[in-house]
Amino acid sequence: MKSILAFFGFLTFGLVSCFAQQNLLDKAEASKEADNYQLSLNILSKIDTNTLSIPQKARFYYLKSANYKFRKEDSDAYPLLLKARKLYTALDSLEKLATINLELFQVVRNIGGDHLNYDEYIKAYLDYHLSQNDPKNLRKAYIRIAGNFARETTVDSSFNYFKKALQLIRIDKDTLAEAHMLNNFGVLHNEFTSYKDSALYYFTTSRRLYKKSEYIQASFQNTASAYKKLGEYDKAIENYQKADSLLGKEYSKERKRFLYDLMAKTYELAEKPTKALEYYKLTQAYQDSLNLQEQEKAIFDIQTKYEVQKKENENLQLKQSRFWLISGVILLVLLLIATYLVYRTRIAKKQLEVKQSALEKNELEKQLKDQELAGLDAMIEGQEKERQRIANDLHDNLGGLLATLKLHFQNLKTKTDRLRDEQDELFKTTNSLLDETYQQVRNYAHQRNAGLKTSEGLVPSIKNFASKVSVGNNLVVQVEAHDMDERLENSVEITIFRIVQELITNVIKHAEASEIIVHLTSFEDHINIMVEDNGKGFDPSIIKDNDGMGLASIIKRVEHLGGNVDIDSHSGSGTTVILNIPKS
Fold first, then answer.
1. Core vs surface per residue 7-41: b (16+ CB within 10 A) or e
2. CA dist 431 to 347, 395, 413, 418, 473, Å?
3. What domains lie within the chain, and their CATH numbers?
């Protein structure tokens, strides 16, 4: 009971700990999404990674690396990303692996150095998207890689991946995406190459494909930047003015401020100080408005933050209440399960005790039956010896005395040959009685000494016994055997012989029958014995248990051998005894 409770206690602690760690991971991710990277790292520092599951540990390393990455601490992010990559590989999370490979490429590119190579991460990232057979996601992957190569030293790679994306865009006939891609070519030329004319070409071409004014406005602004770098300030100002005309009231003040700052600097480069001052003032006016707006926003943010914090505290309390409620329910369920298991264990123990008691009882009954069987065997063996002794005594002692008596009687008759006729008749009668007595003693001795001869087998021994019995008892005993060619075990043959012998002897003693028929039939697994007589019959219900080797002993003996006995007898209609005895 204590071990079960300890197990469920440990399981409950594990579940509670798992829920707590999951809650911390959720908070850390929420802080990262809110750009509060330090808070997210602080929360992650409270987590014990030894208690995390593999999915939780993979998420932990990824969140921690993301916080370092957004803080531009790529050297700290790199080993964490490698750990997350290994765990997500074990989890077979292919989509997450693709994201991590892209971020590893970005981190390795930022770290630099000859000892790190980002090619394997780019290949793994693209292999995943190629395997998905999704052209739109594949072109996005190309664009992401191209954007990360958008540097002066790697601008050629950026062009290559943008071109691959453009091929897929044109297959899809996505005009807006094509315009964006042409604009990207213009930006690359404008920022990282000396081919400013190419930049102007791509800006103009993309502008023809744009429909929305915000995209056209940005294109004019990019065109003005290219002209400014070429030193053609008037054309630059002309394109800035076109961009300004497309900035309606719906656009933010920040975009206005940024555009007017660019125009003021361009007018200054064009040596038009009046216009430059005018646009500097506009820039400052928008900056002041933005500052005021920022102050108002800051105040609003503080109020919002307070309300949000208050709400979060309420939610946290609610979550904690739910957490403890769920934990209590789980603990209660576990206790109920433990109680049920203890109950089942006790029931099973009681059932086992009952079965054990039944087994012991059966064993005791078996021992008693074995003892009873051994007693019967001993009794039969004793009877066999007693039969042998009586038969020998009858034959050797009483038989010899009768023979001597007859011899003396013959001598007496010889000496008295001259006696009267009456005496002669008396001598004859006495001599006849002596002959008859001597013959009966011989027959009885042979009957008591009759037994199974191993060399002859069961059926010949029974027939031999039947023939001897038939001679002196005015009785016909027939033996009919069916499929009895196969010899049985010696002990089984002896048992069957003694049973048949006893049944025939009982008929001679009690039935007053003139005919007995013994049927012996062999079946696959047992021997069938049927002994019929035409005697006076009896009531089978009066069979006594203590009649020596009588019917009760025969029944008991057969039952111990695994067989059965059926007795059919009625007064005046003879008796039939049927026995079925297993062969082994």
1. ebeeebeeebeeebbbebbebbbebbeeeebebbb
2. 86, 20, 10, 18, 21
3. 134-248 (1.25.40.10), 455-582 (3.30.565.10)
3-state secondary structure of 578: strand
Nearest by Cα to 478 from 499, 496, 504: 504
Among all chains, which residue has been given the structure tokens 């071990």?
Answer: 3
Q: What CA–CA distance (Å, rounded) separates 430 from 433?
A: 5
At 157 the pLDDT is: 92
Using CA atoms, how far apart are residues 234 and 213, in angstroms rounded to an integer? 23
Taking phi over 0 as left and psi of -120 to 50 as alpha, with beta for the rest, 566 belongs to beta
**What is d(CA 58, CA 62) in angstroms, rounded to the nearest whole number?**
6
CA dist., res. 497 & res. 484, Å (int) = 14
Q: Return d(Cα 10, Cα 89) in angstroms, integer.
A: 30
CA 27 to chain centre: 37
State the Cα–Cα distance between residues 224 and 244, nearest whole angstrom.
11
Helix (H) or strand (E) holding 581: strand 575-582
Averaged over 18-27, what is the pLDDT?
81
CA dihedral (207, 212, 213, 218) positive or negative: negative
Helix (H) or strand (E) holding 580: strand 575-582
Where does 507-582 have alpha helices with state H?
A: 551-560
Q: With DSSP H G I counted as helix, E B as strand and the rest as coil, what are the percentages for the chain, rounded to 5?
A: 75, 5, 20
pLDDT tens for 334-368 read: 788 888 888 888 888 888 888 888 888 888 877 77
Residue-wise DSSP of 69-90: HHTT-HHHHHHHHHHHHHHHHH
What are the Cα distances from residue 48, in Å, to 56, 180, 211, 559? 11, 46, 54, 75
List Cβ neighbours of 63 (8 Å cut-off, separation of 6 or more). 25, 28, 29, 32, 40, 44
- Alpha-helical runs (H) found in 46-134: 54-70, 74-91, 94-111, 119-131
pLDDT digits (tens, 9 = 90+) for 448-505: 545 556 567 888 888 888 887 776 557 889 999 998 888 888 878 888 888 888 888 8
Give the Å distances, CA to CA, from 432 to 315, 412, 421, 428, 429: 130, 15, 17, 6, 5
Q: Helix 135-148 vs helix 119-131: angle between axes, to the nearest 10 degrees? A: 160
